[in-house]
Amino acid sequence: MIKTDFDSGMLSYLGDAVWELLVREHIFNTVPHSNKKANAMALSYVTARAQCEALEKILPALSEEENEVFRWGRNTKVHSIPRSASPEEYRRATGLEVLFGYLYMTKNEQRYRELFKIAFEMA
C-alpha cells in the first residue's frame, strides 16, 4: 500500500498541470509556431477522453506502486463531471492526473516523461 501524506484531490490538481505542461512542451517542439494550431492540438491531449486513451497505452508499463497510485486516484471522489466525459472516463482521467502529480511530487521527472512518451508513442 502506498504511504503518502498527499491528498488525492490536490495530486489530481497538480497532475493536471504537469500533464498540460508536457502537452504544451511537446506541441512547442513539434508544431510550426502558431497559437491557433497549438491550442487546437492541445485539446486532443487534455480532455478526459484523450487522457483515457493515453492511459490504455500507459497501463501495461506501470509498476505495482504506480498502479496502486492510479487506482487510488481513480477512486477519488469527484464533485462534478463534465458533459464531454462519462463518469468512468472522468474517474480514469483523474487517476492518470493523480499518478502524474504523485510522480512530480516524488521528484520522478524521468518517469512521468517516459510515461507521457509511451502514451503518445513518441519513445
Mean pLDDT: 87
CATH fold topology: Ribonuclease iii, N-terminal Endonuclease Domain, Chain A
The sequence of SSEs as H and E is: HHHHHH
- How far do the termini sit from each other? 30 Å
The largest sheet, given as strand count, sense and whether it forms a barrel, is:
none
Overall number of structural domains: 1
In terms of per-residue confidence, which ranges show pLDDT below 50 for 5 or more consecutive residues? Answer: none
Shape: globular
Radius of gyration: 14 Å
Describe this structure in words.
By secondary structure, this protein is mostly helical. The protein has a single domain (8-119), classed as Ribonuclease III domain (Ribonuclease iii, N-terminal Endonuclease Domain, Chain A, Orthogonal Bundle), CATH 1.10.1520.10. The protein is 71% helix and 0% strand. The protein has six helices and no strands. The chain has helices at residues 8-30, 35-46, 48-58, 64-74, 87-105, 109-119. Helix 1 crosses helix 2, helix 1 (8-30) packs across helix 5 and helix 3 crosses helix 5. The N and C termini lie far apart (30 Å). The mean pLDDT is 87.
Layout: helices, strands, pairs:
Layout: H1 8-30, H2 35-46, H3 48-58, H4 64-74, H5 87-105, H6 109-119
Helix pairs in contact: 1-2, 1-5, 3-5, 3-6, 4-5
